[in-house]
Amino acid sequence: MTHTTRRTSSHWRSKLGFIVAAAGSAVGLGNIWKFPYIAGESGGGMFVLVYLLCLVLLGVPIMVAEVLIGRTTQQSPVKAFAELSSRNSFWMGVGLLGVITGFVILSYYSVVGGWGIYYFCLSVLHTVGGTEGWPNGADAEAYQKIFEQLLSSGRLNVFFHTVFMLLTTGIVIQGVRRGIERGAEWLMGMFFLILVLLLVYAGSLATFNEGVSFVFGFHAERFTAASLLEALGHSFFTLSVGMGAILTYGSYLQENDDIVGTSLIIALLDSLVALGACLILFPITFLQGLEPTQGPGLVFVNIPFALGRLSFGSVLSAVFFFLLVCAALTSAISLLEVTTAYLIDTFGWQRKHAALTCSLAIFLLGIPSALSGGSDFFGTRMTELLGKNWFELFDYLASNWFLPLGGLGISLFVGWFLEASLSRTEFRRGSNIGKVKGVYQIWVFLLRYLVPFAIVAMMLHALELI
Ligand code: PHE
To answer: Does any ligand 1 atom lie closer than 6 A to the CB of residue 335?
Structure first.
């Protein structure tokens, strides 16, 4: 196998660098904003169980496959597939789908990241200004109104979407070591510290047990056919697999870094954070007798309201939204990096130009999402026509269809197409778990049969064909 090796500055400085950056990519809005509300809507424990099964049996094998492709080729998705398939255009198309998915996801992800910044600002204003920011002594409806006002304000959305994209671009421009690795270390460090503090706080609440039984209690009546695809799509979304983000990060690994062990650590951290977020959110929600199944507003209405009624509440809510923004940024960085690395590796662009160009294009693509809560075309009109506004449509397409499709392509490629001798050697190199007897065979079996079968079956099911 001949492959070009990257310059040293394009590798992680330390082994931990990859784990931190990849965990930063995985842990994001998906864990804190999305997971709790879809779990709340789709059957609590029943959803959590299906999601965890998808994560372990489907998501992790794909993650290992992605890291393996990346580390072996030292290239971003399209070139990596080109190299391993002797430029077969179908497989290169799988890589390109990943780049497009990255574009699509970041365009609306950044809007939600912007909401996080806005809520952080409101909380800080309230802390320092007293009467600024949050309404004093108001009821939950007042907070609902603030959220609705934010959703319907194109100006606020575009402004904070801009801020979020600028922050993301500022980090990616600085490269793998100085930007991504260092940024992830700082942001994830603060993230975990705050997460533990908030967990301790939630654990001290009288409603903690109620929150636990909500998350782990089975509410099968709320679990529908659509929930199944949702669980599958979310397990890919939350691990950042199916689109080449993990592949790209894997391409900055050195030859002897452990692929299997690190993938397991990342998946474990990711699911712990998702469950941890539920254990923070639901006890706080129940403490004030709020609705746990209210959809995307769960974090943005319940948290500031519930915390706002406590002394030091606005400090706590500033801390919470800071946590949310840190998590969102480390994921956004990985999304932007996929498209940036594509331009660098495929067309030989300089990092600065590549990052700025991608970021501008994604920013523009995000504007309709930023305007989706309003009453103009991208909001109300599209909802009337399609049942979803632009933002919801993008989220639905990217996480429920593009990521599983990308995952399907990657699993078929590594399971059936890639030479077994190559994949076996790469799987085992540098990994103690990878060398344990039978582990490689189980992985290949999952990639060959279970992953494709499950993805296709769930898609057909969602299309009501089976
Ligand atoms: N995993 C991120 C989250 O949970 C989102 C993401 C998806 C990031 C795909 C990169 C690639 O928020």
So the answer is: yes
Rounded (to 5) percent helix, strand, coil in the chain: 80, 0, 20
**314 CA distance to ligand 1 centroid (A)?**
28
Q: Is the pLDDT of residue 130 over 60?
A: no
Average pLDDT over residues 143-161: 93
CA of 135 to the centre of ligand 1 (A): 33
Cβ count within 10 A of residue 72? 24
Does position 57 have pLDDT exceeding 80, yes or no? yes
3-state helix/strand/coil string of the chain: CCCCCCCHHHCCCCHHHHHHHHHHHHCCHHHHHHHHHHHHHCCEHHHHHHHHHHHHHHHHHHHHHHHHHHHHHCCCHHHHHHHHCCCCHHHHHHHHHHHHHHHHHHHHHHHHHHHHHHHHHHHHHHHHHCCCCCCCCCCHHHHHHHHHHHHHCHHHHHHHHHHHHHHHHHHHCCCHHHHHHHHHHHHHHHHHHHHHHHHHHHHCCCCHHHHHHHHHCECHHHCCHHHHHHHHHHHHHHHCCCCCHHHHHHCCCCCCCCHHHHHHHHHHHHHHHHHHHHHHHHHHHHHCCCCCCCCCHHHHHHHHHHHHCCCCHHHHHHHHHHHHHHHHHHHHHHHHHHHHHHHHHHHCCCHHHHHHHHHHHHHHHHHHHHCCCCCCHHHHHHHHHHCCCHHHHHHHHHHHHHHHHHHHHHHHHHHHHCCHHHHHHHHHCCCHHHHCCCHHHHHHHHHHHHHHHHHHHHHHHHCCCC
Substitution site in 191, 331, 399 for ligand 1 pocket (most atoms within 8 Å of beta carbon) = 331
Give the pLDDT score at 129. 63
Q: Is a pLDDT exceeding 50 seen at residue 73?
A: yes
- What CA–CA distance (Å, rounded) separates 460 from 136? 50
Q: How far is the CA of 401 from the centre of ligand 1 (A)?
A: 15
Identify the bridge partners of residue 392 per DSSP, sorted by sequence position.
Answer: none
The CB of 238 under 6 Å from ligand 1? The reply is yes
Residue 4 confidence (pLDDT): 56
Judge if the beta carbon of residue 110 lies within 6 A of ligand 1: no
Q: What spacing in Å lies between the alpha carbon of 260 and ligand 1's midpoint?
A: 20
Distance from the alpha carbon of residue 332 to the mean position of ligand 1, in angstroms: 7
